[in-house]
Amino acid sequence: MIMDLHSHTKYSNCGIDEPEDLILARIEQGIDLLGVTDHNHGILCRDEQYQEEIRATAKKYADKIKVLCGIEICTQPDYRLPEGKKLSNYDYCLIENLFDPTSHMRGDLLSYVKKLDCNAGIAHTDLFSFMKSQGLDEYEYLKNLSENNVFWELNVSFDKIHGYREHAYVKEFFENAKQQDLVKRAGLMVSVGFDGHRRYDYDINRVMGANLFLKENGFKTPIQYLIDNKKRT
Ligand SMILES: [Zn+2]
Ligand SMILES: [Zn+2]
After folding, report:
1. Rounded to an integer, what is the distance from CA 149 to the centroid of its chain?
2. 173 CA → ligand 2 middle, Å
């Protein structure tokens, strides 16, 4: 099953696609499990409208693709969620800015996630550099994430909207046997996300390659976990 658990639609200020157009494009491109994860600062208080549109469209194409309704959470001061907001109706969230000193998580991801009441993944983050900078025991930290069902994203974006780039941490992970061994031993779930902002600005080969890498090397992915914990169909 080929996953892409990170994508944007018109509900993000930086996105433009109608959810239906995005879903149709991903069916065409060969994705089996798609996560729509618009930015919290684009959705704002339209949570219900957003979820209804994503879920209704998902239902329409349920025989061709599985679609999850997620949200990407910025934790920087200007874009943060309103205090006390829960995300219980989302299938999962992707958390940004773990590394950012201005993030109101202050590096404490798990406490933050617990308050949100939602399954969570870590978006486009160099987790190994983060752990090193905090002096954390890598195995213990990854195991703790794993025990709390927090997954880690390999972001394979070639994103023209937020900077055309290849993430160095992903490249490193593909080549670093020690990192791979730690992640595997800790049982950490690893996801693949393209972080697409335009449905045609997509490189399916990068998505397929990362999916294949995880499968061939026996990594745990959040695919089954997220499907089993879907909020609604
Ligand atoms: Zn964006
Ligand atoms: Zn994103």
Report:
1. 13
2. 20
User: In the chain, what are the domain boundaries?
Assistant: 3-228
Distance 72 CA to ligand 1 centre (A): 9
CATH of domain 3-228: 3.20.20.140
Ligand 1 centroid, distance to 39 Cα (angstroms):
7
Q: Calculate how far, in angstroms, residue 95's C-alpha sits from the geometric centre of ligand 1.
A: 13
Q: Which residues contact 174 (CB under 8 A, 6 or more apart)?
A: 213
Residues with CB under 5 A from ligand 1 (ion): 14
Question: 80 is written with which tokens?
Answer: 């943060």
**How far is 68 from 177, CA to CA, in rounded Å?**
31
**Among 92, 89, 88, 87, which Cα is nearest to 35's?**
92
* CA of 232 relative to ligand 1 center, distance in Å: 25
**8 A C-beta contact, residue 33 and residue 4:** yes
Q: Is the distance from CB of 23 to CB of 58 less than 8 angstroms?
A: yes
* 105-121: average pLDDT: 92
Residue in the block written with tokens 């009441």: 117
Do β-strands 120-122 and 151-155 pair in parallel, antiparallel, or remain unpaired? parallel
- For the stretch 147-202, pLDDT in tens is 999 999 999 986 667 766 789 999 999 999 999 999 999 999 999 999 999 999 99
